[in-house]
Every structure is written in C-alpha cells, then in structure tokens.
What does this fold into?
Amino acid sequence: MALLPSTMRAAVITAPGAPDVLRVQDRPVPEPGPGEILVRVRGSALNRADVLQRMGRYPAPPGVPTDIPGLEFAGEVAASGPGAERWAVGTRVTGLVGGGAHAEFLVTHQDAVAVIPEALSWEVAGATPEACITAYDALQQAGAAPGEVVLVHAVGSGVGLAVVQVGAALGCRTYGTARSPAKLDVARALGMTDGVVHGEAGWVVAAARRWTDKRGVDVCIDLVGGPYVAETVPAMALHGRIVVVGTLAGQETSLDLRYLLGKRLTIRGTVLRSRPLAERVAVTEAYARTVLPWLAAGTVRLPIDATFPLARIAEAHALMESNATTGKIALSFD
Ligand SMILES: NC(=O)c1ccc[n+]([C@@H]2O[C@H](COP(=O)([O-])OP(=O)(O)OC[C@H]3O[C@@H](n4cnc5c(N)ncnc54)[C@H](OP(=O)(O)O)[C@@H]3O)[C@@H](O)[C@H]2O)c1
It folds into this structure.
C-alpha cells in the first residue's frame, strides 16, 4: 500500500466573511475511525451551503470539520478504519459529507458512499451528488409520478437543472423559473418543456395556467423560498405538493391560506446536510441505484459551468455569489 502523507491541502475558512477569508492551508490528514474510510479526494464542487458557512450563517453539523467547507466528493479509497472492510484501497467512490470535502482527504462512513461508474470522470462524479440527490430526494418526497407537471424555481441552479433532468427521467413534464432568459434556454436544451422569467405579482400562476390549460402544477420544487412560496400556492393543481428546498430570496413569507385549503395542498421543507447516518446511507443507496446509472448512460446530464483548482477556491465562491453561473461550479485537486 502506498505510504500516505501526514498533511494535506485544505480550503480553510479563517474567519466569517467575504471570499478572501478562504485560505488553502496544510492540515493533518484525518484518521478513519471504526467503520470509516479515508478518501483521497479527486473532484468536488461548490454549493450554496459552503457560501453560507463561510459567511458564518450555516455552521457545520457535529462530527465534521468546522472550518473546511465542502459537501460532496469523488475520490479513491486510501485507507480503512477498524472494521471497515467493505472497499479495497483504490475503489472509486462518491458521496455526501456534512463538510470537509474541499480538502485532499476526508473521512466518511464506508456505507455512505457509492461506487462511481467507469464512464464518469472525477469532475462529473464530484459535481453531481449534492444536486442530483437533493433533486431525486425532493421529487420522491413530493411523490412526483410519471405524467405529472413539475415546476422548479431557480431552474438554472445546480439543483434546478438536476430537477429538470431527474424529473424527466422519472417521466414528469418539467417547467422552470429564472431571473434571466439565458438560464431558461440552457434548461430547455436539457429537456425542460417551458419556463418563465421572474415578473410582476401573479407571474407564477399566469405561467402555470398557460402551461397546464388552467389546471395548475402538481409539484413545485422551490429552491428560492421567501415570496416565491406565496406566488406558487395559487399556481398549484388540486392535491399539489410544494417542497421548499432553499431560501435564497428569504426565510419568511405570508400565504393566502384559502388556496392551501381549497386545493388541499401540501407544503413541506427538506434538508440533507444534518440528516443522521442511516438516512444519508439510504439516499446514497438510492442515488447508486437510480441516478448514477442514468448519469453513466447519459440519460441525466448536469452542466458544469466552471472548474477551479482548489488553490482558487476564493474565486469559485465569488463566482457562485455573482449568480452568473448555470449549473455546477466544480473543484479539481491536481
Ligand atoms: N435543502 C437541502 O438539503 C439543499 C441541498 C442543496 C441545495 N439546496 C438549496 O438549493 C438552492 C440551489 O442551490 P445550488 O447550489 O444549486 O445554487 P446555485 O447553482 O448557486 O444557483 C442558485 C441560483 O439561484 C438564483 N437566485 C439567487 N438568489 C435569488 C433570489 N433572491 N431570487 C431568485 N433567484 C435567486 C440565481 O439564478 P437566477 O439567475 O435565476 O436568479 C442563482 O444562480 C439553494 O437555495 C441551496 O441552499 C438545499
């Protein structure tokens, strides 16, 4: 077995603040505990949670590094802790962690990873788990069924484009919103039926009525929150389900509850990061069974807008905050 280094390069949040608080520093390589594996990270990507954590607004859950961001990875098994005999050294694995993926090594539970299909590069395998697992899991929670109409807000985001692709793979008709037509064009090229640019009060219900012959949408995956929830409620069909996944436009809203009652709607929220191990294992297994084979076959694609080496992590954060990207921002480790 190749000798492992004692230190690694890691993106470190040195203080809460703007992207320039991020520094690439040497840190000890973590040691895998019982049931855990050490992974040499070959690919990862950014998520909004990394930006919020850097600003001091989204602390890492217990058990993960407090100052190294990063929620998703692709890499090779480099060593195993006591009792972790599932994977041979060198196995290509991918998965989610509560933090710490923006470093050359991380530890995770041996059951919380999926084997990467041969067809997938490090770049793609490292940039897809968070968006695709979030999208698949939210659509499952919504009970999205073949033939149903799914609307996603912020369709040009990493998660938004994953909803378009995974939703289509599940047999749904997908629609989306964005604040610029260019993002809708990318989503259309990936199979979105139609989309609408943010507008005046009533813009969501007007578009939904047009798309569905006045019936409304069955499912909304809302990545934006705030006033978008109130705009969406009248746009839902009878028995519609809204899953609030993000709060980019705010954490508060005011609803006309008559729609909730009259249409017998369900509104639920979801978060992946703080789920206990057993639930993280379950979503990873579902990813391995469903979305990873679709990614390998090309049925599901998730555009990578830009790729930065770890040394340029601050630039990657600034780009994400500019809202200029469509799809994922990947990180490389060569
Ligand atoms: N609950 C979970 O477990 C979970 C997991 C993953 C992600 N998320 C959430 O999902 C959302 C998308 O994440 P991501 O990493 O895919 O994002 P991303 O790729 O960075 O894209 C976010 C996009 O949202 C739009 N946006 C930003 N601020 C907005 C505002 N105030 N109003 C309307 N649109 C706005 C922008 O596109 P436009 O040009 O269209 O404005 C922006 O490009 C985030 O809220 C994130 O926190 C939640």
Residues 7-128+273-332 form a domain with the Quinone Oxidoreductase; Chain A, domain 1 fold (CATH 3.90.180.10). The radius of gyration is 20 Å.
